[in-house]
Input
Amino acid sequence: MDTTRKFERSLGLGYVIVVVVGNIIGSGVYKKIAPMAAELHSAGWVLIAWIVGGLITLFGALSNAEVAGMLADTGGDFAYYKKVYNRFFAFIYGWSLFAVIQTAAISSLAYVFAQSFNTLLNLPILFPALSTFSIGGVFFPFEGFTVKLTAIILILVLTLVNIKGIKAGASVSKLILWLVFGGLFLIVAFGFTSSQSHPIQSFNFGTNSDAPVTISTFFTAMLASFWAYQGWASVGFIGGEVKDAKQNIPKGIVAGVFIVIAAYLLVNVTYLSLLSIPQLEQIYQSGDQIAAIEAVRMFWGQNGALFISFLILITTLGCTNATILASARPYYAMAQEKLFFSGAGKLNKANAPSHSLIAQGIWASVLVLSGTFDQLTDMIIFAVFIFYGATSLAVFVLRKKMPDAPRPYKVWGYPIVPAIFILFCIVLVFNTVFTRPREAIMGLTLIFSGLPVYWWLNRKNK
Output
């Protein structure tokens, strides 16, 4: 391994769309409707939250696409921030990816894979006597240790797959994505046509609670939907490996997000036609049930539960793989700029950043032990929307600083679309501080843990 190797531009538009969709469609499409129902108590409002979440995601994707079209390079937003803002802000973003955003995403996806794997095989319970052991009364590393160990094994195996090169990782994602869309099509087709389906209840805005739907509860519910949409920006991380990146990355982002929005709306209308809001709330309260499994069980019985468990297994396998594939690239770009540990800037014979992949896999495995699925995902969304807002703000900065620079893609609806997205990011971040303070504090702590690292790296490089 050495630092003289460079990435090869080997991925076309088709692979870009695969990476976008593969990074998005994971556990959220199966699990997140339950916490949304528990927050809003209304099928109609849950559907509105999915629609608004999709539109806001699209606004962010359109804004990101303009910046990517101008500055596409390995590292994605890290490379953009270095040119638009400064090295310090770029480092804080890159460190946040490593400390919480991407590694916790890998942990969360692997966790749901392990839950489904355990459902299918009913694995033996490990170390039950240690399940109540805690660190500070906050972290319970041995609680559900069978599932957590399975998740860690998956992370390490997929890390080894991606060390073999990006084409190997992308090909795995492409195959899995076809299986996922086939499975989702079967759920929609058989769910809607079953005798258990009541499509009209999907659009019922009545609530089964005295608590009204407020702006705060709506934003809190959308934390769940945003986890389901999370991952579209990850394609920017592999910008140095995409052919004609300044054309293909914007096109791939927009096309991929449109595909996902359409798929999510169809699937979630199906869930709401099969399960009532009280049933979804009960699923959420149980802690160990998955909404999609219970929905399919309605029309296919126990065989349906096995089918959907296998589909979730395949989906989360694909999304975990796609996230591992893309996420290690920013650390490589940071190391090239002496803003990360030097070993991360080396490529192996397969032109893969193997040291970055290994470090990422180890920390993601530690995060698996730190919390539950929903805690991890709320923490991710809080952290990532700080930086999503910064990328959309870059549209305005670059329009002022570089008005005549070539723009392969210009954001539709400028300046309204990026302005709405920035405002939304601000509201979501502040709302999370008040409604999910534990997750917000954990996210901020991990982000700012990069400050001493930045000081140490600067001192070392001097």
Q: What stands out?
A: Residues 291-327 form the longest helix (37 residues). The chain has 18 helices and no strands. The mean pLDDT is 84. Residues 13-461 form a domain with the Amino acid/polyamine transporter I fold (CATH 1.20.1740.10).
